[in-house]
Amino acid sequence: MEPSSAAELRRWLTSTAYGGLIYPSVSLSQAKFGLSAIAQDAIDADTTIVSCPCLLAIDVECSLHALTALFGELTLVDLQSWSERQLICTDLCLHCIFPDSSQIPDALRYLRNTCRTFIHAVNPDWAERYTWDKYSRASTCLSTRAFPSTLLSRSPTLQTTSSSYPFILPRVDILNHSRGQPVSWCTSYPEGITKERDESTTISIISHATTPLGEDVFNNYGLNERRADPRIWFFAATKLG
C-alpha cells in the first residue's frame, strides 16, 4: 500500500484540474532514501509511466511571478536582480513554509542569507522559518532534479544550450535513475497549439523496457552525467533523507 503522502501526491497530480498521469500499476513505495516507483504488475515495454502538464512546471518566470504576488508588486525590481537559483529555491522553500497550497499564489549560504534579509523586511515570521536547512534542500533538488528548458521544445532534448534555463516538473522526476535505461521523453501538444510552450502541453516518460512485478521502474541519467556521480547522491541523501 502506498504511504498516505504518496497517495495524496497521486491524487493531486492526476486530478482533473491538472490531468497528469502515474501509470496505475506503478506504486510509490517508501524506500530507504525516499519513494521508489515499483511495478505492482508486470509492465509492458513502450508504456507511458508518468506525465505532467507544463502548467505545473517551476521555472524562473513562474517563481518570479509567485514571489512578486506574495511579497507585493513593489518588490518586483529587487526580485529581478536575484539569480535563477535564488528565485526558484525561495519559491520551493515557501511551499514548505506554507504547506497549505491555497496560501501560495497561483501563478548557497550567501545566496540564502541575501534572500532571508529581503524576506525579513517583508515578514519577519516568514524569514524565521526560511532556514538554511530548507534552502539547502531546495538547492540540492534544483541541482540534481532540474531539467533544461530544451525539453519543452517541439523537438525535445536534454542537451543544454546557452539560452536554456532550469525548470522542475513535479513527479516526472519520481523515478529512480539507472544507466542505459531505454526511455523516451515525449512532449505532447494539443491540436492547434503552435507555441513552443503552452500550459496545456504535457511531458511524459515512456519506458521501452519490460518491468517485472516488484521491480523498480527506472529513468536514465540522460546527458547529465553529474546525476550519476555518487557524491551528488550521497549529499542529496544526507540532506533530503
Structural account:
The chain has two domains: 4-57 and 169-240, SET domain (Beta-clip-like, Beta Complex), CATH 2.170.270; 60-143, no CATH class. It contains eight helices and ten strands. The chain has helices at residues 4-14, 60-71, 76-79, 84-97, 109-122, 124-129, 132-145, 230-240, and strands at residues 21-22, 26-31, 34-39, 47-53, 147-148, 166-167, 176-177, 183-188, 202-207, 218-219. The two termini are 21 Å apart. Residues 101-107 and 225-241 have low confidence and may be disordered.
For the structure shown, list the relevant keywords.
alpha+beta; Beta-clip-like; two-stranded antiparallel ribbon; 10 strands; SET domain-containing protein; SET_dom_sf
> How far from one another are the termini?
21 Å
Number of helices: 8
Any idea of the CATH topology of the largest domain? Beta-clip-like
- Name the overall outline: globular
Structural class: alpha+beta
Largest sheet: 4 strands, antiparallel
- Strand arrangement across the biggest beta sheet: 1-4-9-8
Question: What is the strand and helix layout of this fold?
Answer:
Layout: H1 4-14, E1 21-22, E2 26-31, E3 34-39, E4 47-53, H2 60-71, H3 76-79, H4 84-97, H5 109-122, H6 124-129, H7 132-145, E5 147-148, E6 166-167, E7 176-177, E8 183-188, E9 202-207, E10 218-219, H8 230-240
Parallel strand pairs: 7-10
Antiparallel strand pairs: 1-4, 2-3, 4-9, 5-6, 8-9
Helix pairs in contact: 2-4, 4-7, 7-8
How would you sum up this structure in a few lines?
With 241 residues, the protein is an alpha+beta fold. The protein is 36% helix and 17% strand. The strands form 4 sheets. The chain has a 4-stranded antiparallel beta sheet with strand order 1-4-9-8. A two-stranded antiparallel sheet has the order 2-3. The protein has a two-stranded antiparallel ribbon with strand order 5-6.
